[in-house]
Amino acid sequence: MGGGISGLAAAWFLRRDAPPGTRVTVLEASDRIGGALRVSDLAGVPLDEGAESLLLRRPEAVDLAAAAGLDLEDAATTSAAIWTRRAMRAVPASTVMGVPADLRALATTGLLTPRELARVPLDAWLPKARLGEDVSVGRFVATRLGRAVLDRLVEPLLGGVYAGQAEQLSMAATLPQLWPHVLEQRSLLAAARASRRTAGAASGAVFAAPRGGVGRLPDAVAALSRAEVRTRSTVRELRRTPEGWALTVGPVRDAQVVLADAVVLAAPAAAAARLLRREVPAAATELTQVRAASMAVVGLAFSRATVPTPAGSGFLVPPVDGRTVKAVTFSSSKWGWYADAAPGTLLLRASVGRLGEEATLQREDGEIVDLVLADLTDALGITDPPLDARVTRWGGALPQYAVGHRSRVERVRAAVTAVPGLAVCGAAYDGVGVAACIATAEAAVAGLLRQSQS
Length: 454
What we know:
Layout: H1 5-17, E1 25-27, E2 39-42, E3 45-48, E4 54-55, H2 59-67, E5 72-74, E6 80-84, E7 87-90, E8 95-96, E9 99-100, H3 103-107, H4 114-119, H5 137-145, H6 147-162, H7 171-174, H8 179-184, H9 188-199, E10 207-210, H10 217-225, E11 228-230, E12 235-240, E13 245-249, E14 256-260, E15 263-265, H11 269-276, H12 281-287, E16 292-303, E17 314-316, E18 325-329, H13 331-334, H14 337-341, E19 345-352, H15 358-361, H16 365-380, E20 388-399, H17 405-417, E21 422-424, H18 434-453
Parallel strand pairs: 1-11, 6-17, 15-21
Antiparallel strand pairs: 2-3, 4-10, 5-10, 6-7, 8-9, 12-13, 13-14, 16-19, 16-20, 17-18, 18-19
Helix pairs in contact: 1-10, 1-18, 2-18, 5-6, 11-12, 12-17
């Protein structure tokens, strides 16, 4: 149940791998499928309201898009900057989510003052950290490399993904490519270098998307799965029966019972906890501890005749600078199809809101747009009013992976797996990206099918 990309992917994997004749039903509480993936017109041009790119180094989303008949186009540019101290400064190439691997590359950016930069090499002389199963990203980076590296590099990159605060985020869960090397190396700089060597030299494109937006993916996957999709179908209760599961669906006064042999629960942590409370209380208790951040995406369209196209794919903003925007994507530069679809229009997307910044998101749409435009005036010199603007709020869309998150997920899965015919998937577990969500769906379905064959 759940009609986001995780639930829709699970429906496809069931169709692909389950015995012929298996009936697959997707139950979605809202009036549309897709979850945080959605595309709609802005100034007459399709522009994503949620996630707008797929990571090419992970195959899950790429393979699913291909199976659904969507051709992907590489991003035209991925050259990004960090807007801080009133200047655009290049993101150093040699970093792992902001953790630097090359001090010379960092020094050329101007992100750090000479005094702050002088603090960083001390990391090589610190004793090897005694770590347990996990550690806070913010506290560890600040201790090893200095507060400036955390504020000016790690916070904007990590916050751009999780909309959280680095001091509260798990290094093991949010930087899984770096964590094994942190456990082995004395220096965090050395760990970053080892992580980059393990990953191999990056070559070719990094991001891609279907022409017209990632928001096209949910409908294509739903069609591919041939599942029965029911929207406006809130699942209020999940109960085990001798034959499988009974789901109470719909409004209290007109509820229906849907019977199922097995259930894949593809819901946010809070909703999953509510539904598991009766049958899997241990998992429900763990999931109630997963907080979520809200954010908004502000789409803006300008006339190219009066607003020049900025260079690169966009910029990030450190929260220490006190700006409203946390990131801006130059959509017309990043995606080549806009040159054909809207040659006279410049499309931008601004991301607003981090954990603890709910007051900003409670403002009226027009107020939020004005705050974003004020930042764009300072950052890019844009003073013209937009041709069109759109604010899309994503309430509680980004789960926060607190210290100990991976162990919590292991406990959730152990409790769920012990109950026949039940699995969980989604962004609450192994990553918030589209590919990571799809991977959890495939694993959930594989586990269910193994159960049924044993």
